[in-house]
Design a protein that fits this description.
This protein has about 110 residues and is mainly alpha-helical. The chain has helices at about 1-20, 40-90, 95-114, and strands at about 30, 35. The radius of gyration is 26 Å and the shape is elongated.
Length: about 110
């Protein structure tokens, strides 16, 4: 998991460097003159930084707001899938219920080992 996180962090930093090194169509004018060079890079960098911080704040807010809702939606999808499987293959229902019980038992035993 650490390797995946490291790779994803490097990808994010690489994409940030890519955005910062390419100029955008936005022109910043100070005292009637367009900014060029390091001043323009700094102005664009601040814009990217503000965008990143605001996206992280929105993501954190959405995690806390939608965690309960996501669990309810996931439960509804599981029940809908069970009903769809039951309606599509009614002859498999006697097999699905014992299979579900065995699956839950195996998951509980594996969780007990950890």
């Amino acid at each position: 998991m650490k390797k995946i996180a490291t790779v994803l962090a490097l990808v994010v930093l690489g994409s940030l460097a890519w955005v910062l090194l390419h100029s955008s169509d936005i022109s910043v004018t100070v005292n009637g003159q367009k900014m060029v060079g390091l001043g323009k890079l700094a102005a664009e960098g601040w814009g990217v930084l503000v965008g990143i911080v605001s996206l992280f704040c929105a993501a954190i807010l959405l995690v806390f707001v939608s965690a309960g809702t996501a669990l309810m939606v996931l439960g509804a999808l599981v029940i809908a899938g069970f009903v769809a499987a039951w309606s599509a293959f009614p002859f498999l229902l006697p097999l699905l219920v014992p299979l579900l019980i065995v699956w839950i038992f195996v998951a509980a035993v594996r969780a007990g080992r950890r």
